[in-house]
Specification:
heterodimer; A: about 425 residues; two-stranded antiparallel sheet; 2 strands; elongated; disordered C terminus; B: about 475 residues; mainly alpha; two-stranded antiparallel ribbon; about 70% helix
């Protein structure tokens, strides 16, 4: 303990080292502040949408008179509320929408909508605490520890220090520990303040903090190994900077290329076109034929009257659903392709600790690709609830008005278990 | 001059005897080649796929059977943002924007799909492209090769010997900078070759490509000057290395992300859904075509009847439903244009923050110039959205005119109940081929060059600052060498 205090005191005598820690702590605090502001904006945006939806509801009630007209224009909001840890790892929340309104028409034409953000802001990557921890903190570890032995040798003190009994225990270990702990504190103290303010669940916060500690421990060990065997400070520093740059920049970028090449996904543009053609083709087919195909999938409505006129809303919503069924396989393959890419990236995380630990952080914050896919799954479940809510009114020609409209599902009031489009279509 | 060359040659000979220098050089040449080759292959595939999709979408539109024109309005069509010729070198925002846009009546959709929605989280670590190699990795290589170039000489006393031989400090620094720059060029050749290859396929790109090449040459020259100057000013090699890596981390990694975060904070953008809802409210405020008593459409009816000199809608020589559809479309299209302009303005204001960040980071400056020159920047995406919207409006209005003139009003009114009337409302299948296809007009070379100017100007400022630092280092060195 005494040696730890001594090392901390030594540390304060080195202005450059102190400056590095202070800058790191400042950047962490800025990242936490910006992250919290971003999350607050997203929450406010979701709240505003839910508020504005009331106006839309009223407008729809004022003009629609039957179930079909209601259903056609019944866009209901779904949202992917940020978790209480999202402030620390903003992840994919800038490119994927956090709010999506869906109506009971073919979902495949609605679910791939993008958010209209400025892509030039997404290009450099996010500035969040995960970035500070993954990119910047390791550089500070390298700066503080790369000359652990060579620095003493170059100062001519190494032999004297080595002559001390148990030098490793009394000098180098406390010194490494003191410096690593300071770096960790510079990242984690702002994180804990943010997590407390956001009211993050302790278990998730602990997971995030452990990932930070794990990453810093990895770098500390790596730096100590290189520093132990490096003959000169300069060589150690260059080797470590090279390792940092291979593991944090080049490796992940190259892996991304490999992963995307190894796992092809179905073509999105083709999927969209096939869905549209399947939907619109119904206008040129005999009405009853389309309705019958739908009734095979949903026999509970078999008692419905046959089609006698060129148009009926039940037929309209039947072919919308058939359009989704027609591309269900492709749609599932598309989703699974993205998920497999994400899984492969997870394997790469074992080889590249910065990737692995960042994935843990994004998982804890629920801002990763997996979380986006889970949101899409919830949207699918909700869409099913919404369209099936209308089926009795459509297929039994039941009257529909404001009272019935109010019975419709809300995104936050129902089950969220996952139903894949395949299972959904018997 | 001859002395500068001799010092440069000596420096390169020295580097050629250092294992780490070779290692770094080989690593970068390899990376640079891999980036160039994969990017070229990827972009070629992407270009072919998008062209194929565009053709297929156009063919599908033309292959529609006999249809009611309003069906075609809802059938709609897809447009693809074409891949810019220089995207193999600098993909810019291409992977971060949707590429497929569905155009239909009454609605403005977002561009969907795109690499960022189809990739793992790894895409956010950066993409291995020639531009990434030049912007991000090249400065690090220059730092590794050059941090000790002067500091070492001073530590080992070589510099004093050089001084005895009458070499002036400025000449020594110039020679070292020349050597470092030459080695840097060798390492970066593959990236520059990929730029030339991308440009060679389209002669119109030559001017932009040359300017982009020039911008990167200036960018790397800035780093060479800074590396040599810091190596000369630092008290030790280690100090030079740590200082330069810190400068690199700030300029290349920290500032671009920080500027983007600040831009998003300073110019907060509402979500697309919020904009949609506001637009829907505005549209209802102006006119609601579903409401028979709506004043906007009632006035339109009066205007129309007067223009045709008839008393009743039934006496019009054209189908009034088609006219209402066209009027409604014109109303929403005005709102779409207004909202799209507001969104674009806000995004431009955000990008202005990045330009302000370029004052702190030459990497941002060179990226801005390179994306503008390659037509892979935000501006290009906005152009695509604007042109697609103009095309959408034109296409829908052509169909609405067909609706007004080619579909009899009585049939139109009865089409939901009467199969024969429904059949008569369909216009002939050969009509679809007479409608124009979407042609994206990319920024002209002149527009692109002027788009590059802000980035180039800031880069020029950086070059002057770097020269200033270099000269200052030369003066300091002279004093040390005495």
């Amino acid at each position: 303990m005494r040696s730890l205090v001594r090392e901390l005191w030594f540390f304060t005598r080195s202005p450059a080292a102190v400056a590095a820690i202070i800058v790191l702590a400042l950047l962490s605090s800025v990242a936490v502040t910006l992250g919290m502001a971003e999350i607050a904006r997203e929450r406010a945006s979701i709240a505003r949408v839910l508020q504005m939806q009331a106006v839309e509801d009223q407008a729809l009630i004022d003009y629609a008179g039957d179930a079909g007209t209601f259903a056609y224009a019944d866009f209901r909001p779904t949202w992917n509320a940020p978790s209480d840890l999202a402030f620390a790892a903003l992840g994919q929340r800038d490119t994927a929408p956090s709010i999506l309104r869906v109506r009971p028409l073919a979902l495949e034409a609605q679910i791939y909508e993008n958010e209209q953000r400025n892509a030039e802001l997404a290009l450099p990557g996010r500035f969040d605490l995960a970035f500070v921890a993954i990119y910047l903190a390791p550089l500070v570890v390298i700066i503080l520890l790369h000359d652990l032995w060579s620095g003493e040798r170059e100062a001519g003190r190494l032999h004297a220090l080595r002559a001390l009994p148990r030098a490793a225990w009394r000098v180098f270990l406390p010194r490494t520990g003191a410096r690593a702990v300071l770096v960790g504190a510079a990242v984690l103290v702002p994180f804990l303040v943010g997590a407390t303010l956001e009211g993050a669940p302790p278990a998730k916060a602990l997971l995030f903090a452990s990932a930070t500690v794990g990453l810093l421990a990895f770098w500390t060990v790596l730096v100590v190994i290189v520093a132990r065997f490096g003959s000169r400070s300069t060589v150690s520093a260059a080797v470590l900077a090279g390792l940092w740059f291979a593991l944090t920049l080049v490796g992940p970028a190259a892996t991304n290329l490999v992963v995307n090449a190894a796992v092809p996904t179905p073509d999105g543009a083709l999927l969209a076109r096939q869905n549209r053609d399947a939907v619109h083709g119904a206008w040129d087919l005999p009405r009853q034929e389309t309705l019958d195909r739908f009734l095979e999938l949903y026999p509970e409505w078999s008692d419905t009257e046959p089609m006698t006129e060129p148009f009926h809303w039940k037929w309209y919503f039947a072919f919308q659903q058939l359009g989704d069924v027609a591309v269900a396989d492709v749609s599932t393959a598309y989703r699974d392709g993205v998920e497999r890419r994400e899984a492969l990236a997870g394997l790469a995380g074992w080889l590249m600790p910065p990737v692995g630990f960042q994935r843990i952080m994004h998982r804890a914050a629920e801002t990763d690709v997996e979380a986006q896919l889970a949101y899409q799954d919830r949207v699918r479940v909700f869409h099913t609830r919404l369209r099936t809510f209308y089926y009795p009114y459509l297929f039994e020609d039941r009257p529909f008005g404001a009272a019935e409209y109010a019975l419709g599902p809300r995104f936050d009031d129902g089950p969220a278990e996952v139903v894949s489009p395949e299972e959904e279509a018997p | 001059m001859r002395r500068i060359l001799r010092i440069a040659a000596e420096e390169m000979r020295l580097m050629s005897r250092t294992r780490t220098a070779w290692l770094g050089l080989i690593a970068l040449v390899l990376l640079s080649s891999i980036a160039a080759a994969t990017s070229l292959a990827h972009v070629a595939g992407e270009r072919a796929a998008r062209m194929e999709h565009q053709t297929a979408a156009d063919q599908a539109f033309e292959a529609q059977p006999d249809r009611h024109p309003h069906r075609a309005v809802h059938y709609g069509t897809y447009v693809q943002r074409p891949v810019s010729p220089l995207a193999a070198f600098e993909p810019g925002v291409d992977p971060f924007t949707g590429t497929t846009l569905f155009l239909e009546g009454h609605r403005q959709n977002s561009a969907t799909f795109g690499a960022m929605r189809e990739s793992s989280g790894l895409i956010r670590f950066g993409q291995l492209t020639p531009a990434f190699v030049l912007q991000t990795l090249a400065p690090l290589l220059l730092i590794f090769l050059g941090f000790s170039t002067v500091a070492r000489d001073r530590e080992t006393g070589v510099f004093r010997q050089l001084g005895l031989h009458g070499a002036r400090a400025a000449e020594v620094l110039a020679g070292k900078a020349l050597a470092l720059g030459t080695v840097g060029l060798i390492a970066l050749a593959p990236a520059l070759v990929s730029l030339a290859t991308a440009a060679a396929t389209t002669p119109a790109e030559m001017a932009s490509a040359a300017l982009i090449g020039g911008a990167y040459a200036v960018y790397l020259a800035i780093w060479v000057l800074v590396v040599v100057a810091v190596s000369s000013l630092a008290r030790s090699s280690r100090g030079a290395l740590l200082g330069l890596v810190a400068v690199w981390a700030v300029a290349v990694v920290l500032v671009p992300r920080g500027a983007a975060a600040i831009a998003a904070q300073a110019e907060p953008a509402p979500t697309r859904v919020e904009m949609d809802l506001l637009l829907a409210q505005d549209a209802r405020r102006i006119g609601d075509s579903h409401n028979p008593d709506d004043p906007f459409f009632a006035a339109f009816r009066v205007r129309t009847l007067r223009a045709y000199g008839v008393e009743r809608v039934e006496d019009l020589p054209v189908n009034f439903r088609g006219l209402v559809a066209a009027e409604g479309e014109a109303l929403t299209a005005r709102l779409f244009a207004d909202y799209a302009r507001r969104t674009a303005d806000r995004q431009r204001a955000q990008s202005a923050w990045l330009q302000a960040g370029a004052m702190l980071s030459p990497a941002l400056a060179v990226r801005q110039a390179s994306m503008a020159g390659a037509a892979t920047d935000l501006e290009n995406h906005i152009r695509f959205l604007e042109q697609a919207e103009a095309y959408r409006f034109d296409l829908v209005q052509r169909l609405n005119r067909l609706h007004a003139q080619g579909v009899r009003a009585e049939d139109d009114a009865a089409r939901s109940r009467d199969l024969d009337a429904e059949r008569r409302t369909r216009v002939s299948a050969d009509t679809w081929a007479t409608l124009p296809d979407f042609q994206f007009r990319s920024a002209t070379p002149g527009q692109r060059v002027s788009g590059m100017l802000p980035g180039l100007a800031i880069l020029a400022g950086w070059l002057l600052a770097a020269i200033g630092l270099f000269v200052f280092a030369g003066r300091q060195l002279r004093q040390v060498a005495g």
